[in-house]
Amino acid sequence: MTALRIFSYLPNPRVWKATIAARFCGVEVEVRGASGKELRDWLWDYDAHPLSEQERGELASLARTGKVGLTGAQLYKTDAFMAAHPFGNVPAAFGAGGKVGIFESNSIMRAVARLGEAAFPLYGRDVYEASRIDSFLDVSLVFARDSQIYLLALSGGTVDAAIHDRARDAFAIYASGIEQALSRRRETLVGDGISIADICFAAELALFMNEYGRSEQLDKQGLTRILHPGVQDEYPLMFAHFARLVAHAHFAPDLKPYVEKLRSKAAA
C-alpha cells in the first residue's frame, strides 16, 4: 500500500530526498508528475493527471496564475489541493488517502523517515541526533533559497551580479560547514550511519549542479561558475562524501544518471 503520494515537476532532486529515504526504510512512495512545462496541462490534485481537452473546459474555474517557477502560467489547482497545500507549490505530498497535505521537500523526507523508523533510523537514534539532523536540514534551507533564486535566474536569462554573489556566498557558507562537519575523518554528517541530513545534502548539491549547463548565460554577464574546476580542491571532504553517496545503492537510481548528465555538460 502506498504510504505517500508525491506530485511534482520532474526530474527534481528535492523529490528524490523522499524516494532515497524510502529505499532505506522500505516505505512505498508513489511519484506523479512531468516536466515543468507539461505541468501546465495537469490537474493539480491528489489524483493528479494530464487534463483532457474536455476537462480543461469543464474545470476552467479552477485556473490559477502560477508564481515561482511557473510564473504567469494558468495552472489547474483543485480546492482540495489548495486546502492540503496552502502555498500551492510542488513538490506536494499526500498521506492518509489525500486528506493530509505535506509540503516542502525536507518535511516530505521527514515523513518518510518517520514512517519507516522501525526499519532504519534515518532520523537519528535519540532526540539529540534527531535535533542535530534538524540543524543540518535548517541550514540547508538557507542555501536552498539562494540556490533556487540563482538557478531560476539562470534558466530565465535574468541572472545578474547581485544574484550571483548571493548564491556564491550561500554556497561558500554551506560548503564550509559541511567540510567542517566531515573534518574528523567522518563519513556521515550525523552519528555513525547515513541519515536524512546526508540525503538532503546530496540532493541540494545535485540540484545546484544545474549551473553546469548555464555557462553561456554566465559568460554573457561576465560571471564565473561557482562550481568552477577547482572547487573540489577547496572542499575535498564534502565532494568525496557526495561521491560516496551518489554511488550508494539507495542513492544511485535517482542521483547517478542525473549527476552524470550534468557533469557531461560541464565537460562540454
TrEMBL record:
GO cellular component, one term: cytoplasm
Molecular function terms, GO-annotated: transferase activity
CDD domains attached to this UniProt entry: GST_C_family
Keywords, alphabetical: Transferase
GST C-terminal domain residues: 126-268
Swiss-Prot/TrEMBL GO biological process terms: translational elongation
GST N-terminal domain sequence ranges: 2-120
Protein name, entry field: Glutathione S-transferase
Originating species: Bradyrhizobium macuxiense
